[in-house]
Amino acid sequence: MCIFCKIVKKEVPASVVYEDSDIIAFKDVHPIAPVHILLIPKKHIESVDDLRDEDVSLAGKLVVAAGKIARDFDISPKGYKLLFRVGEWGGQEVPHLHLHLIGGAKLYEAIHPEEMSKEAR
Ligand code: 5GP
Ligand code: ZN
Q1: How do 16-19 and 23-27 pair as beta strands?
Q2: pLDDT digits over 37-55, tens only?
């Protein structure tokens, strides 16, 4: 069973900030910003690449809940970032779909320095 499925089953502790019958949200154990929360479906889906038509409502719930949590944490006025990493080049390390909610500070984007010289496509 994957680490996030264990968090769903409460076999691994997590600082849970939101939970309903379909999704759960908890603080990232290695935050990269003052607010860093992960929202996941309770059902094991590996990544965005595995989402299908029947998952539209579940995927939507993650985004709507992220907005609600952002308001609860008072980071909405300044703005924040929502991020799905997908696969190796997307930097996904945990193979259970998760939406990063990152905020509370000004954020920047980056790609790997080795890729910088490649032609834009
Ligand atoms: P990814 O790189 O897959 O998009 O992000 C995985 C995230 O999960 C990382 O930011 C990492 O810090 C977080 N993470 C990994 N294992 C655990 C854990 O056991 N508990 C919590 N709360 N976060 C975790
Ligand atoms: Zn899982």
Answers
A1: antiparallel
A2: 999 999 999 999 999 999 9
